[in-house]
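Progress note, sequence design subtask.
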């Protein structure tokens, strides 16, 4: 019966041995995600000094913060076609190089305009990296450990956020015309390291198959598989999935037509991929992280050093829980962790809303310690539940559910929605909060996550343990797995 199968799916299975070569490839590709994480973390603290040093208005702050997210849309849209044309590996190098230029412009900025240009350039690089790192990792990884390996980009985003917080705290004692420039400019160092390190990575075997470079694909698969037999089986699956659609001259032609005029199968995949990316950013996570110091400043914590310290606590919590999620993704599956994380965010955001509203009603009066503690705990709980569910699973799911020939450009379309929503939330957060209070914003995000949880329950199917070629079959029926289980009951 369906109930028994559901229980069995939650029971741990013996872990598959982790292929060290595939792990190395995944780590190298995922280090690109440190760049976005570092920017999110460092910008939350640097903004306290930038707005005073450059005398910025609230609108200018929102534009500066949100511009990176909005402009990453262009990188995300271009990344699919680019990676089909020049390969996954060189697209990762391009992403790091673009972000490197943006980081240097931000670090050397002498005006608001120059700083904004640096954010725009860095944003394009972020858009490239957000799409290509999970896609490359998914295409290299064996099925039984793909969840863990493909969640590594989110792990590195969180490590980047934590590093940003640490540098904020470390550099906050320098003069205000120097500290924020160092905070932003130091992002050039990991970008340079990523661009060099990625050059020793192999190309994606699935991209090689699409280019009819079978021997090169076989060599990579032998290194990322347990044995030659498994490698041959994986290669055969890839060749069968590609069929006669592509050749060594294939450059991704016709894919956008299939995405904008989709078959029922592709339509179902698009709904899930776009939906999960939409709710990832509509949850307000990026805005909460970007504006944490502002939120707690309004809650009564005035000293900048204390504000930086709170962000470090939040960063440690966030990173710890994303590591836990990554380790259990292939054991318990995507769907249970996604639902757990989403439900937890509903209650955490509601608690944060209640605490914020109470403190805001006190005005300039005495702020009780318990109310401030409630806000800190609720915020840490929110980012923790995000790191368990939506954070890593969005990237895992978006990179694995598209058919092979649509994967790069389909993922880029889903990530583009992610970036648009992220930019819209970041660029409007302060203005809307000024009208309805921070507490009102958090209650709004809690309501959005209720809708997100309902969406995930009815539309997200389980993909753990399936090869990328097998996952396509999950979406082929008109009714998905969730509907079939309901009818069996």
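Output:
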């Amino acid at each position: 019966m369906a109930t028994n199968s559901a229980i069995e799916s939650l029971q741990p299975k013996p872990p598959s041995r982790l292929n060290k070569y595939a792990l190395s490839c995944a780590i190298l590709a995922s280090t690109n995600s440190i760049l976005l994480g570092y920017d999110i973390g460092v910008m939350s603290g640097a903004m306290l000094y930038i707005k005073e040093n450059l005398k910025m208005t609230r609108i200018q702050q929102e534009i500066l913060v949100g511009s990176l997210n909005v402009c990453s849309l262009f990188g995300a849209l271009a990344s699919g076609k680019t990676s089909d044309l020049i390969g996954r590996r060189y697209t990762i190098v391009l992403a790091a190089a673009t972000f490197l230029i943006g980081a240097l412009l931000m670090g050397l900025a002498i005006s608001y305009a120059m700083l904004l240009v640096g954010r725009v350039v860095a944003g394009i690089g972020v858009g490239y990296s957000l799409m290509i790192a999970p896609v490359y990792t998914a295409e290299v990884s064996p099925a039984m450990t793909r969840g863990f390996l493909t969640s590594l980009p989110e792990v590195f985003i969180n490590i980047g956020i934590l590093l940003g917080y640490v540098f904020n705290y470390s550099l906050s004692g320098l003069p205000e015309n120097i500290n924020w420039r160092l905070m932003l400019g130091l992002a050039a160092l990991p970008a340079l390291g990523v661009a060099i390190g990625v050059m020793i990575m192999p190309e994606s075997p699935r991209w090689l198959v699409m280019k009819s470079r079978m021997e090169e694909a076989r060599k990579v698969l032998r290194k990322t598989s347990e044995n030659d037999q498994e490698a041959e089986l994986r290669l055969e699956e890839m060749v069968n999935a590609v069929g006669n659609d592509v050749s060594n001259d294939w450059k991704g032609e016709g894919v956008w037509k299939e995405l904008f005029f989709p078959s029922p199968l592709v339509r179902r995949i698009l709904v899930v991929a776009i939906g999960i990316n939409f709710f990832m950013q509509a949850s307000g996570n990026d805005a909460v992280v970007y504006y944490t110091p502002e939120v707690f400043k309004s809650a009564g914590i005035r000293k900048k050093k204390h504000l930086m310290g709170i962000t470090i606590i939040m960063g440690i919590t966030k990173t710890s829980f994303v590591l836990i999620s990554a380790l259990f993704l292939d054991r318990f599956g995507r769907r249970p962790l996604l639902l757990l994380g989403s439900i937890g965010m509903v209650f955490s955001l509601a608690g944060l809303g209640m605490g914020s509203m109470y403190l805001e009603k006190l005005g300039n009066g005495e702020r009780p310690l318990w109310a401030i503690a409630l806000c800190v705990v609720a915020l840490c709980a929110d980012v923790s539940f995000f790191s368990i569910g939506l954070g890593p699973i969005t990237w895992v799911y978006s990179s694995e559910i598209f058919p092979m020939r649509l994967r790069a450009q389909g993922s880029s379309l889903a990530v583009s929605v992610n970036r648009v929503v992220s930019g819209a939330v970041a660029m409007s957060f302060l203005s809307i909060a000024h009208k309805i209070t921070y507490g009102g914003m958090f209650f709004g995000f809690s309501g959005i996550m209720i809708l997100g949880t309902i969406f995930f329950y009815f539309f997200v199917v389980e993909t753990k343990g399936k090869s990328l070629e097998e996952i396509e079959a999950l979406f082929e029926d008109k009714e998905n797995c969730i509907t079939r289980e309901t009818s069996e009951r």
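The two ends are 8 Å apart (CA to CA). Work on this subtask will continue into the next period as scheduled.
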